[in-house]
Amino acid sequence: MERSETDPQIQQTREIRPVKHPLVAASKLAVASLLIACNTALAAAPDWVNQPPQRKGFVFGVGAADLSLGHAAASEAAKLAARNEIASSLKLQIGSELTLNNISDESGSRSEFNNNIRIRVPDVALSDIRIIKTGEVAEHQSLYSLAELDLAKAAERVASEIRSLLAQTSPAIDSTSLATALRGHYRALERQLNFQSLLSQYRLLDGKQPFNDSALNNDAERALKFFDNLLIHIAPKDEDSKKVARNIASELAAKGLQGSESATQAKLQLSMNSQRRTMERNGAHFCRIKTDATLSANTQHLSAASRSAKAVSGDPEIACQKAAEKLSKVVAADIMNTFWNTLKSPSPK
Questions:
Q1: Is residue 16 over pLDDT 50?
Q2: Strands (E), the chain
Q3: What is the pLDDT of residue 248?
Q4: For the chain, what is the domain count?
Q5: Range of the domain at 295
Q6: Which residues contact 18 (CB under 8 A, 6 or more apart)?
Q7: Which residues contact 257 (CB under 8 A, 6 or more apart)?
């Protein structure tokens, strides 16, 4: 039985057919053109771009850059990309920062390498990676670099750095000066972390040689116990400082410094002075608190911070409490950053 074109079922079928919008078609055409352009550029590139060399004991990396950057900048960008490809393929650390954190749980308080004592570890020396070829496809504005890493030579260089590190004498710890002791124990942790980083790089380079790090481990264990027992006493000088102090104690504890109610038991003292400014506008209460904080050890200055924070609320005291909470975070961060930088300085400040 034939149906006329006025049959509602036929009209309904026609209505739900997808319509090819001109913008959709243009978009598909643009994507196709881009893919063709990319494939054409790769086809015109040197053979080693698509098929890097393979050689036992060596790793190769290819980098590319756009010549629109300028030839000099593109050349450096392509070389860096090639080096980074090698480092990435070996999972080498191009740069990193290891840290120490104090942890409290059911087994007690202990320190572990985590996220607060900031120690810069050695970068893998990318000087071992050589650029052996370059090439460009001018019509496609592309520049390429081919990099090569001799694993045996790189491993030996890292091994030499490890041997040099292990040959260093343990840092002297002067127990009569807290600032000197802090610096000495910090250096012990720094050496241990540097060794761990270098050893990791050495193994990734397929290095097989064993190393005796027992002296480093002993120094690091002694340093960890020292930081475990390092207490700080917070001495607020006014009511607003007390508000900040209540929050800053937990912030510092999370960063590795445990608080103490006793000034005589604590080796570190944090003095704080604060001023507040308040105003009310259309029923909203604004509070701004400024705090000056100084960290010292036996009257020797170690760190300082001067920051302010503001908050708003329908209640003036709540506004000031919010401002104090904000302020505690930035003051704690500044105090700790300056503190660790002081320990890294050539001599205690």
A1: no
A2: 58-66, 96-105, 108-121, 129-137, 142-150, 231-236, 258-259, 268-281, 284-297, 300-313
A3: 87
A4: 1
A5: 231-344
A6: none
A7: 102, 230, 231, 232, 268, 336
